[in-house]
Design brief:
about 120 residues, alpha+beta, Thrombin, subunit H, 2 domains, three-stranded antiparallel β-sheet, about 20% helix
């Protein structure tokens, strides 16, 4: 890691990494919540805009990228669950896709609906 910055509200930590990926972490839990790949092989710095709505990452080669952030950055695992739910499939440990059973669909639906009720309105 080459640099880190807190979001203005203190909820997130952004990191600039040697692999060219800017990452956002939950400051309280330490969980990875978002990744932003770049065309660079290594990032030199990272910063949030004063309102927390944008993330800037600069690279050692002099280029920079800016991403517009949503108001709510969701954990990667929740996004994977949503993708599995929408596709009706999930990646199994051997790396192949397996069909989700009825119970798995129901459990994923209820878990996501409980966390994000505004996204599951009729």
């Amino acid at each position: 890691m080459n640099d880190a910055a807190f979001s203005p509200d203190g909820r997130w930590i952004a990191t600039a990494a040697q692999d060219g990926i800017a990452r956002i972490w939950d400051a309280n839990q330490g969980d990875l919540v978002a990744q932003f790949p770049t065309d660079s092989s290594s990032l030199s710095s990272v910063a949030f805009s004063p309102d927390g709505g944008r993330l800037l990452a600069a690279s050692w080669n002099g280029t920079a990228r800016i991403w517009l952030l949503t108001r709510e950055v969701r954990p990667v695992e929740d996004l994977r669950s949503l993708a599995s739910l929408l596709a009706g499939r999930q990646l199994n440990p051997s790396g192949t896709l397996a069909r989700l059973g009825t119970a798995a669909v129901t459990n994923a639906w209820h878990a996501l609906k409980a966390k994000y009720p505004e996204d599951f309105r009729p």
